[in-house]
Design a protein that fits this description.
globular; single chain; about 70% helix; two-stranded antiparallel sheet; 13 helices; mainly alpha; about 325 residues
């Protein structure tokens, strides 16, 4: 589908991907009513691992599974594991719109972290956008309003910080590390950590609930593939803003399935955060403004370590296609 010379397939696929991700989060929230986040993460990784292995088997690059940057890899893995537990837990405690609004602060945090980690120079305009966006987070959290901040809010904030840390480290070491290493370590760490916690929180699962765990893995994998295809069809600066469509699905799904209605502070705060994120994306796309473009080049959404990272899978596919092409004679 093309319109006035502009290829709409990429943005439409991205919108579809984030709609599927939102459906994934509906299942997470539903299961969160009866199961601990540790159990949800463990089985979503366990059931998604065979799908991830199919992608890992296509990686034809030489090397071992030992990371070239072990300390950065360890920090990123820790951040991804913390993000997965905290995000899944926050969905069980908060309305979906509030969780998304807080997680949308991750691009603001990525901009801040890019200064010390990537050596990115952030000018006054992007700096002001970060401050405005963080004010939006305060509007959503509304401290001092009489509504005490819950552990769910804290978990969502930790999830946003962990996602930003994980993403910025990928930008730091992604050119040196094998994609298999970037994919495998967070998933295996989740398996080990959640397995250790599982005996203390395990609840027997009826067949219908087990199907829900399988749906989490399947929906995440399908959404990841759609997002990969979208980034292949269109520029990152066009695809990245599509993630904010999740706030619409959160309002729709939250109302239909959980009788949730976003209140005015959440709506205003989300609008401020999204506006700031879009401005940062716009500024990164401007000439001679951003050398690294850490936000627009961060593919996907909060990296939880429960599903393969989209950009790594995409790179594996690109490498496989390049290796399959016959040499030019």
């Amino acid at each position: 589908m093309k319109q006035a010379g502009f290829d709409m397939r990429g943005p439409l696929l991205a919108l579809l991907a984030f709609a599927i991700f939102s459906g994934h989060d509906v299942v997470v929230k539903y299961l969160g009513g009866g199961y601990a986040a540790f159990q949800i993460v463990f089985f979503s990784v366990l059931l998604g691992l065979p799908l991830a292995m199919l992608m890992l088997m296509r990686d034809q690059t030489d090397g071992t599974l030992l990371p070239r940057h072990p300390w950065w890899t360890a920090l990123r893995t820790t951040a991804a594991v913390a993000t997965g537990v905290c995000v899944f837990f926050s969905f069980s405690m908060l309305p979906m719109t509030q969780v998304y609004a807080i997680l949308f602060a991750a691009p603001l945090l990525i901009t801040v972290l890019s200064i010390p980690i990537l050596g990115e120079k952030v000018g006054i305009r992007r700096g002001a956008a970060v401050l405005v966006g963080l004010c939006g987070v305060l509007i959503v959290l509304r401290p001092g309003s009489g509504d005490a901040l819950s552990i769910g809010h804290a978990a969502a904030l930790v999830g946003a910080v962990g996602s930003a840390v994980s993403s910025i480290i990928v930008r730091k070491i992604g050119q040196d590390e094998r994609n298999v290493v970037l994919l495998l370590y967070p998933m295996m760490a989740n398996m080990v950590v959640m397995a250790c916690a599982l005996p203390f929180v395990y609840q027997p699962m009826p067949l219908l609930d087990f199907a829900g765990f399988a749906a989490i893995a399947g929906l995440a994998f399908v959404a990841s593939l759609c997002l990969i295809a979208a980034y292949k069809m269109s520029e990152a600066a066009i695809i990245a803003p599509m993630q904010y469509s999740q706030i619409i699905w959160a309002a729709i799904f939250g109302f239909i399935f959980f009788n949730e209605t976003p209140d005015l502070p959440t709506i205003i705060g989300a609008a401020v955060i999204i506006g700031s994120g879009l401005y940062i994306l716009f500024r990164e796309g401007s000439a001679n403004v951003s050398e690294n473009r850490p936000v627009s080049q961060t593919k996907g959404r909060a990296e939880t370590g429960t599903v393969p990272r989209m950009s790594a899978i995409s790179q594996i596919e690109e490498d496989r296609v390049e290796d399959a092409e016959p040499p030019v004679r």
